[in-house]
Amino acid sequence: MHVGDIAIGGDEFVVMAGPCAVESERQVLDTAESVARAGARILRGGAYKPRSSPYSFQGLGVEGLKILSKARDVTGLAIITEVMSETDVDVVAEYADIMQVGARSMENFSLLERLGTCGRPVLLKRGMTATLEDLLRSAQFIAASGNPDVILCERGIRTFETATRNTFDVAAVPVLKTVCHLPVIVDPSHAAGVRALVPVLARAGVVVGADGLLVEVHPQPEMAASDGEQSLTFAQFDSMMLDLEPYLSLRPTADRLYAAAGGLD
Ligand code: PEP
Ligand code: MN
């Protein structure tokens, strides 16, 4: 799948990084420059934020999209940002290179259908209580509506375990890679919920065959409007990228995954 000159789902391991939410131009430009230097190809940042409380910061909306677009002009990074509502699809598609569907929207079928004609690739996050079959059915809604360019994202699921924010389902990656042809990326930030665990989960994603990462990075995580506890500092992101390097050569191809699994029904 191609996003500009970036191929996702091929040989390259594609890193998408940036803040949970777009808060200001300075925050986004500084982050974009830093993550680009460290090797990220795609800038993330939510302009429309799904929050568990109506009293939390809800995002900057169109102003946030414009900030992301400026960061693309300055750094050359492609942009991924979340779309929460059918009514925002056109405006988000005007600014974004990849449309993100959040975990809470994975079963918003009218949004998925509308994304079938948005003209952009879609990154579909696994819902918190969704099986892999549920995730694939949601991907089919987008494809059947006209858009085959869907990237799947494992971001942790809700279980009885409370030590992490969500439970990272590491097996999701080889299962999805063997049963369908879509790229699969992992989001260690929302899986872990704490920054200390993000690099090790990222490494696990690499060695089980993920096609890339979606990672939260913030210039001052303690000041972040959302998800500060799981956001990496610039220095932590730099060292995570360096630490991942030796593992990239261990990334199994889909063929090797399939052979190792002995084939999945
Ligand atoms: C996000 O990427 O900031 C986000 C809200 O993620 P999720 O939909 O996985 O909770
Ligand atoms: Mn977040």
What does this protein structure show overall?
The structure is a single chain. This protein has 265 residues and is an alpha/beta fold. It has one domain (2-259): Aldolase class I (TIM Barrel, Alpha-Beta Barrel), CATH 3.20.20.70. 38% of the residues lie in helices and 14% in strands. The chain has 10 helices and 10 strands. The chain has helices at residues 25-38, 62-75, 89-95, 109-115, 132-144, 172-179, 188-192, 198-207, 234-248, 254-261, and strands spanning 2-3, 6-7, 14-18, 42-44, 78-82, 98-101, 122-125, 150-154, 184-186, 212-216. The strands form 2 sheets. It has an 8-stranded parallel barrel with strand order 3-4-5-6-7-8-9-10, surrounded by 6 helices. A two-stranded antiparallel ribbon has the order 1-2. A hairpin with a 2-residue loop joins strand 1 (2-3) and strand 2. Helix 1 runs parallel beside helix 2 (62-75), helix 1 runs parallel beside helix 9 (234-248) and helix 8 (198-207) runs parallel beside helix 9 (234-248). The longest helix has 15 residues, at 234-248. The protein is globular. The two termini are 25 Å apart. The mean pLDDT is 96.
